[in-house]
């Protein structure tokens, strides 16, 4: 275990109709509010009107059209608006993309240079405009962490950055707001939160037994309640459990004392930087193949995963066979719920691999650091 400090200041406000708490939560910050949202789902679902009613007391400015895989240019536009309109508080309403974009708006609004400088670490934020979130898609845990992933179309890069200054002040988690998710977005959320747990399960420390037990439990619950959300999108209990699982999966508490591997996220971010596919689709294609690639060097951990998460039968099998069966079961589960499992399903082919490999900006992999050649092999296995 490495030494660690942990402080997560985000207040979670969970349950039906909790947007009625917006007024009391935002009022201490001031009157000027920037409302940030995506491509229009909140207008279709009626949430936009309900939010505006709750914000009646405030001067509300808006930034609409945050893209899935949010662009640095959109965040820059938001940061300029915050400065121009003297915004006191930002409210993000949406999924991970809207929240991640809001985090960069929050930090870039207190910086005179280019927002991209913050993403690449050229500027370390010293101040940020406070913000809160109303979550509409359970997936990333961006609602309770200090990370953000931003795309730069010019440099063809999609990079994560973070700062303790960009934890949301509060996040409203109302499971009913996820009832309207299209099936594929519910699937994406399930894949993403499971992959976050896997990234941390396969980690660089010798003993993570305590965390492993928690992670195995959360993964099993996701595999029980995720399909229930797909069968009945208005199943409140199932949506609640999935919403909590998504937040727990990446709010930092499952990786006390270590980082986790995170190579699959690095591999995926390079794919979606070049092809603009959904993050979780890329993960479903790449992660099981990353597992198959590294498993021979970490057989004991993959065997534990197979037995404790997928109840793999062990008699008359080698450790490698047990380990591989666990990986196959994960891949099958994702396939069964409808996730794409091959890059070719999104028209990504062998000749695209060098471009994708070029987009990998940083060293990836902590349990097993990967070279660019390793990455190319894993993409080939994922075709
Ligand atoms: O844009 P609108 O019209 O709002 O539609 C969105 C979007 O098209 C739609 N949607 C969201 N809530 C809805 C809804 N449609 C109907 N009803 C609702 N209730 O869903 C689509 C996808 O939304 P998006 O926010 O892009 O999805 P997600 O939450 O999966 O976020 C993905 C982004 O987060 C990054 C990913 O790389 C990707 O850019 N990640 C952020 C992380 C973090 N901050 O910690 C970690 C993750 O690993 C991930 O990398
Ligand atoms: Zn993810």
Automatic annotation (TrEMBL):
Pfam families: ADH_Fe_C (PF25137), Fe-ADH (PF00465)
Domain of life: Bacteria
Domain Alcohol dehydrogenase iron-type/glycerol dehydrogenase GldA: 9-175
Record key words, sorted: Oxidoreductase
UniProt xrefs under InterPro entries: ADH_Fe/GldA (IPR001670), ADH_Fe_C (IPR056798), ADH_Fe_CS (IPR018211), BDH-like (IPR044731)
CDD domains: BDH
Start and end residues of each Fe-containing alcohol dehydrogenase-like C-terminal domain: 186-381
Keyword Oxidoreductase: yes
Protein name in UniProt: Iron-containing alcohol dehydrogenase
């Amino acid at each position: 275990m490495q030494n660690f400090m942990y402080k997560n200041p985000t207040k979670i406000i969970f349950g039906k109709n909790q947007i009625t708490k917006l007024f009391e939560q935002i009022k201490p910050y001031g009157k000027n509010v920037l409302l940030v949202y995506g491509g229009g789902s909140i207008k279709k679902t009626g949430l936009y009107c309900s939010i505006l009613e709750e914000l009646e007391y405030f001067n509300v400015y808006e930034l609409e059209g945050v893209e899935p895989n949010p662009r640095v240019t959109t965040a820059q536009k938001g940061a300029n608006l915050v400065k121009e309109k003297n915004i006191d508080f930002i409210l993000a309403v949406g999924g991970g993309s809207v929240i991640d974009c809001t985090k960069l708006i929050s930090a870039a609004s207190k910086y005179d240079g280019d927002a991209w400088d913050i993403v690449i670490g050229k500027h370390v934020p010293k101040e940020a405009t406070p913000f809160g979130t109303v979550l509409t898609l359970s997936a990333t845990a961006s609602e309770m962490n200090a990370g953000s992933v931003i795309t730069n179309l010019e440099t063809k890069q999609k990079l994560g950055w973070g700062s303790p200054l960009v934890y949301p002040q509060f996040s409203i988690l109302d499971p009913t707001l996820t009832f309207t998710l299209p099936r594929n977005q519910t699937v994406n959320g399930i894949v993403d939160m499971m992959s976050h747990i896997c990234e941390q399960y396969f980690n660089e420390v010798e003993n993570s037994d305590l965390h492993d037990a928690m992670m195995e439990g959360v993964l099993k619950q996701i595999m029980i309640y995720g399909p229930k959300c797909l069968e009945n999108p208005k199943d409140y209990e199932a949506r609640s459990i999935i919403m909590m699982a998504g937040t727990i999966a990446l709010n930092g508490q499952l990786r006390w004392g270590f980082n986790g591997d995170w190579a699959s996220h690095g591999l995926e971010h390079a794919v979606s930087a070049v092809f603009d596919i959904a993050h979780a689709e890329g993960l479903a294609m790449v992660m099981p193949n990353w597992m198959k690639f590294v498993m021979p060097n970490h057989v004991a951990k993959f065997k534990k995963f197979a037995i404790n998460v997928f109840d793999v039968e062990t008699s008359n099998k080698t450790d490698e066979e047990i380990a591989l069966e666990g990986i196959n079961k994960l891949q099958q589960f994702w396939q069964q719920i409808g996730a794409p499992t091959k890059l070719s399903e999104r028209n990504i082919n062998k000749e695209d691999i060098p471009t994708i490999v070029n987009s990998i900006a940083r060293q990836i992999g902590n349990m097993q650091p990967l070279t660019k050649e390793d990455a190319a092999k894993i993409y080939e296995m994922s075709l």
